[in-house]
Write a structure and sequence with these properties.
Elements (H helix, E strand, L loop, with lengths): L13 H17 L6 H14 L9 H6 L17 H17 L18 E5 L1 H4 L11 E10 L4 E5 L5 E5 L3 E3 L14
Antiparallel strand pairs: 1-2, 1-5, 2-3, 3-4
Helix pairs in contact: 1-2
């Protein structure tokens, strides 16, 4: 079995983790004899559908679809449920989802940079989903903030370089080793 699932970068490794879990489970069930992987796949899928989260106490399949994870052979032959039964089932699911919902901790503080403040810029290769060495630095700089433009864009300048423009989402404060920011510096 050498099938790679196509994925989008914004899934952030969910496909890879699912693929790893399936491969690991199949290797345990098949005991190295992968000619029987079709039989083991049903057990793997059942295990993934019925596994309960230690945090919520519910399986992801139940939270998404409102029914517990069943084996494929155990699915009911009746295709259509009565509407009232489905409404009651959905009410239970919405109640469970509401009880395990966490409160949102959003911040009201908007970080800004003042003229002359030093900052670091996130390397563009990280945002373009390129494969790079983990030991390479994630940020470039330090840069000096020259001015704020519209739409949260800053003009910054390196000591030996031209003035560049970056969105605030790529900029972080530059701290010295002892946690104190640089004073206003002019390049």
């Amino acid at each position: 079995m050498n099938y790679k699932i196509p994925h989008q970068p914004e899934w952030m490794g969910l496909v890879e983790r699912a693929d790893l879990a399936i491969r690991h489970s199949l290797s345990i069930i098949c005991y190295g004899d992968f000619s029987k992987w079709g039989d083991g796949l049903e057990e793997v899928v059942k295990g993934m559908r019925t596994r309960k989260s230690s945090v919520t106490g519910y399986s992801l399949h139940y939270l998404m679809f409102g029914v517990g994870g069943h084996e494929i052979k155990e699915l009911p032959t009746q295709k259509f449920m009565r509407l009232n039964e489905r409404k009651i089932e959905l009410d239970k699911v919405f109640f469970v989802r509401h009880t395990i919902k966490r409160s949102a901790n959003s911040s009201n503080i908007v970080f800004g940079f003042k003229k002359g403040e030093t900052a670091m810029i996130l390397d563009y290769k990280l945002r373009k989903n390129q494969i790079i060495n983990k030991l390479l630095p994630r940020y470039q700089g330090p840069f000096v903030v020259k001015k704020l433009l519209k739409h949260n864009i800053y003009e910054v300048k390196k000591e030996k370089g031209k003035i560049q423009r970056y969105n605030a989402s790529r900029i972080v404060r530059y701290f010295l080793l002892h946690g104190v920011t640089h004073k206003a510096v002019e390049f």
